[in-house]
């Protein structure tokens, strides 16, 4: 997914080693979270359930089907999609 060797090396060198238990931990709900303006940008079909959950919570949801590392390989396109997504948020 990261064909550019320099991008791949930068990505790998920036990934800390974490214990598996950290990935299995259930994080507590953040106070005030439900009232915050939220959005979800779905980058691949693998995240369809997460996008559905976001929709059920009333979040703005956009799709740019690529892959989960598109932020590194297609940063301009992802930034554009995020800008469009944020534009869907209601004004306060």
Description:
The radius of gyration is 16 Å and the shape is globular. It has helices spanning 5-13, 20-24, 48-56, 70-73, 75-87, and strands at 39-42, 60-63. It is built from five helices and two strands. The chain has a domain at 37-92. With 92 residues, it is mainly alpha-helical. It has a two-stranded parallel ribbon with strand order 1-2.
Q: What are the key terms here?
A:
mainly alpha; 92 residues; single chain; two-stranded parallel ribbon; 9% strand; 5 helices
Write the topology of this structure.
Blueprint: H1 5-13, H2 20-24, E1 39-42, H3 48-56, E2 60-63, H4 70-73, H5 75-87
Parallel strand pairs: 1-2
Mean pLDDT: 88
Name the helix and strand elements from N-terminus to C-terminus, one letter apiece: HHEHEHH
- Tally of extended strands? 2
Distance between the termini: 39 Å
In short:
This protein has helices at 5-13, 20-24, 48-56, 70-73, 75-87; strands at 39-42, 60-63.
């Amino acid at each position: 997914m990261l064909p550019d060797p320099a991008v791949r090396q930068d990505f790998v060198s920036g990934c800390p080693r974490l214990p598996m238990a950290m990935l299995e931990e259930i994080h507590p709900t953040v106070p005030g979270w439900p009232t915050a303006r939220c959005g979800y940008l779905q980058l691949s079909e693998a995240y369809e359930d997460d996008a559905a959950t976001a929709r059920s919570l009333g979040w703005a949801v956009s799709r740019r089907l690529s892959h989960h590392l598109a932020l590194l390989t297609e940063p301009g396109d992802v930034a554009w999609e995020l800008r469009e997504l944020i534009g869907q948020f209601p004004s306060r």
